[in-house]
Structures
1.
Amino acid sequence: MAQPNTNLPLAGLRVLDFAQFLAGPVAALRLSDLGAEVIKIERPEGGDLCRSMVVNNQRLDGDSLAFHTFNRGKKSVAADLKASADLAKVRALVASADVMIHNFRPGVMERIGLGYDDARALNPRLVYGAVSGYGATGPWRDKPGQDLLVQSLSGIAWLNGNAADGPVPTGFAMLDVATAANLVQGILACLVRRGITGAGGLVEVNLMSSAIDMTFEQFTCFLNDGGQQPQRHAIGNANPYQPAPYGLYRASDGYFAFAMTPLATVALLLDAPEIGAFDQSEAYSRKDEVKAIVARICAAKPVQHWLDILEPAGIWCAPVLDWPGFVASEGFAALDPVQTIRTANGSEARTTGCPIRIDGQMLRGSDAGPVLGADTAAVFGTLDVS
Amino acid sequence: MIWPLEGILVVDFSQFLAGPYASLRLLDMGARVIKVENTEGGDLCRYHYLSDTRIGSDSTLFHAINRGKESVALDLKSAEGLATARALVEQADVVIQNFRPGVIDRLGLGYDAVRALNPDVIYGSVSGYGTAGDWSELPGQDLLAQARSGVMWLSGNADDGPVPVGLPIADISAGANLAMGLLAALFRHARTGVGALVETSLLESLADLQFELLTTFLNNGNRLPKRLASGSAHGYLAAPYGIYATAEGHLALAMSPLGDLGRALGLDALARLSDQAEAGFSHRDEIHAMIAARLLGQTARHWEAELGGKNIWCARVLTWPEMIAAPSFRGLGLVQQIPGAAEAPSQFLRAPFRLDGAAPRVRSAGPVLDADGPAIRSAFRRPLATDPRENDR
């Protein structure tokens, strides 16, 4: 086990992570990156379901690689919350903690006796974080709080892709990560307040509210624009509300991205007087016509040809890279975002680190995820259970 | 209700989205945010019209990101403007900036200069690509950072080209990361009295957003995820995960045991396949096609009720008009009307969290440029230096 860095902002704080899968554990991971001790409380039979949710057939020491990605550096305590002896120990642990996080469906923790009011009675300084799919009320409350389903209900699937496509979801768990970020912000703010008032607090987030927050720029347009569903561009759509030429273009050997640029500048640099015939005020309303012309011109030459013309003119553009290209790039090397994690058995995997630097230091940790129950004896041994 | 950051002063020099999103979150938690803008029109975002929607004279986007903040317009290249800026940062708890690397240092408001005035300041800096390396000078713009991060090959179908995420995902996640770092530093400050430099970038934030899949890639000999021929939603997950067309509308299916799904859909072939371990991976396209053919026979509304009732994880794919009509959406109370707004457009989204059961209120739209300038300039005074940099030494 690596030695804790006492300079980190959350050094000395204890976080109990009762959550499974993604949003809750990722929030606890960020708190761990920032210096907190994080103890996962898992059911004795199998633990966090994520341990057995194997993506792409990859495991590390028996648990899924995804489990290690979300739970590196944490401790694990196995406890059966329905057994009174274990529950008594967990309640003593709650009394010793600064933060706890769970993502059970609404009502479950209350029935166990670890709802916010129960926990606050045990520990008035506790900051209590709860993640749900859709909030605690309304007909969606019992729907599974799963990333793809929330993307589907929140309209996000109609922002990606082109006009003629069906709905196009974002192909990774963006809402879980965004929800985790919102939870961490709320927890940290309550910890700041606790320093002044001495009292803990309740932080509640849900995937649906986080989805709407992620789209807030466009959704605010929608709300104040007569409730018209945004229409994706015919080609190279990258944001339905952006005027031409915003989007992606296919060159003869690959793709590049073209960000906001005045039409007159586009016409000049691409030597396309037909684009100059459009007024700037038409860049949104006639975006598909303009983009079709840009696309026709760009298809004739390679990506680098266009970057060599656009970049010196200060135009915002970039080649579209895939992961091999990204991982091999100068920009990736300069950020150095990859770290190697190790299990107790010495198995290794590579994963990304925390994207926040504090005082110029990357927040690194070399521990992989814990074996189920690895720290049960050590953690419970320090508690005074009456 | 005591909002957690009451009494915290944030001085925000940033423009557009990532930095201002971080200060918006701090504002929602109770902080006072003073937006320092240039005197030639202010934040460029004021003129960045999305669609043709405007609130007052400034873009909707500007108001969405800067609601509730104060504005002071300062010419940071003039001695007078710089003096006010220095007085502001001297009293700030948090300073935020997102100029390209080096620019804020040349203005005399870099971390070291600000720390000389305010030793325990918490200073947040967001860049496009970090401060070192070939890419550090490139414009930190969302679409361009997405293009470079590989994220455009994760959405869409196998035969598509790259498909960007159609919302500013790099900016918003970088803003969230900055807010987390600033809050952690505020917590440390309350305990130890030391300040901090908090840095993040669009590119690091995109790597973090993709970390589940990117970690898979890094450990599998760099094999890329494969998008499905149609209805793709995740390059590494087994069938049935994806989007399906129906007789009317689309249905999303998340991870579900194939046997249960086969029985719920009356597809014997699917139920039989479920006997094979890993069939969801090895027969991914075949299973997808089988389910797609079956789902075409009924509406998405029918399937959602039918399959949802059998504990299959599914949801209809909604448009925004459909979503805002849903009682569950209204129950979240995310949309708030600004009372007494002069202009007709006045609906805003509140912050996506509740503290002690209460959701933060949306207080006002974004400020008119320099709306609070006179009050701020008189409250934050500092003697003019003959050489504006001399106090740095």
2.
Amino acid sequence: MKTGLAVRQAAIAGTGEADRTTTPGRTALDLAVEAAREAIADAGLDRDAVDAVYTGYSLIEPELDMASRVAQELGIHPTLSQMISVGGATGAALVQQAAMAVGVGAADTVLVVWADNRSSGATQGSYLSTISDQLNVEYEVPYGPFVSTQYALIAQRYQSTFGATPADLAEVSVAFRKHAALNPKARYRDPLTVEDVLESPMVTSPLRRYDCCIVSDFGGAVIVTSADRARGLVPDSVEILGYGQGHTHEHLTQSKDLMVSGAATSGRVAFEMSGLRPHEIDMTQIYDCFTITVLIELEDLGFCGKGEGADYIREYVGRSQRRPSNTNGGMLSCANGGILHVTEAVRQMQGRAGAHQLVRRPSTSLVHGNGGMMSSHVSLVLGAA
Amino acid sequence: MNAPVVSSGAIAAEFWSRAAAGELAIQECLDCGRRQMPPRGSCRDCLGDRTRLSPYQGQPALYSYSWVHRPAHPDLAKHVPYCVALVELEPGVLIESWLIGLGDEEPRLGADLTLDFAEVSGRVRPVFRPTPAA
């Protein structure tokens, strides 16, 4: 690493995912506890080994300090604890923060967990209203944009700038749905064509229903510890080789360039730290709140040139599967929650993804989170130990 | 729930009072001369806090737009579908607003717009119309 600190290499030793499908109606806390319990067991640990708890936030059941609440419910007494919010990028950001804590020796075993009951605990209308708090309440919200509208404004500009079409955006949903078809836990599993996307109801032009992600319950957790210790705990730990962030604005009108996101910075920093380059990455798990998000992120991360996102998706992700992405179906077809991009990446690299396990097990991956209005970006480079 | 009518402070109050009188006020930094929207307590370029609001007299252009097909608030239901727009007031200065008075043709990015005012969500706010071809 180029940090100049004498840092320990961090690794992920276990993952947990709350069951979203068979028991609806649970609280955010229930989902967090289930995911955490599973991650601790998956790492072969006793809960007393956890000395740090890092959690995301709940939009539906806000807690001033979710981390202390989760620790309390798990009956553990950490010596390091925090709840953080980087919007949708929170999952990747939590892993970065945990890797940093392990790196400097401030913690040995970090429980990372993020859960929310976004469908059980809210109507779609109340959820959409809640997340609109990220817009400017005085100058934007009165004109009635949804969060999806802000991304639609980016998409419209993207189409005009690069000559892209709604069909190009649709390719993202189509590619991820192919993976979802194999995943029993995915919300949508029926085959999806570009025509299906283009015929789905218009939400906020040019974004249609299948350009927008699912709003669902989710819960995901990972155990981050030192790479040395992780190798002693499990045979298939996954090392956190690099991480980076890039933040450019909060409100859309304050972006200096809507066509280039903070992913350009977060990706460059994470790749530099890892010593790897985009062409050496076997698989990506890319934040996919909307189809347009994925195209811009892939371009800014360096997997293809500007304006080439749809061609890249068609070739690398769809047709040849040379670099598969969002292998559980992503937020577009499987479930909400940026933490699941992390757990899915780790499980694929361990060869333990289940029915939708890739035939060629990836040994490197790039996980990317995005928060706000394409505002906050966090990249992780992971490598099999 | 309808959108709250918010005034975040003295500068914003002046902005809205001028809007009610049919003026779009743009904020100018008295130290570095740069302009920004929306108005706020300090200049985001030089961080100085000596600013003034002056009448916008530039040529607005369409930066992006989106037709919204269901209302974000109940009081917008009568307007559905409405066209949310990003409008470039001058290079590097965007505001979010509405594009109104559109015909059958899809708007073209970069097209000149004409400033107007309308009551939106309980307050007179700036909106924009396509500028008819000369």
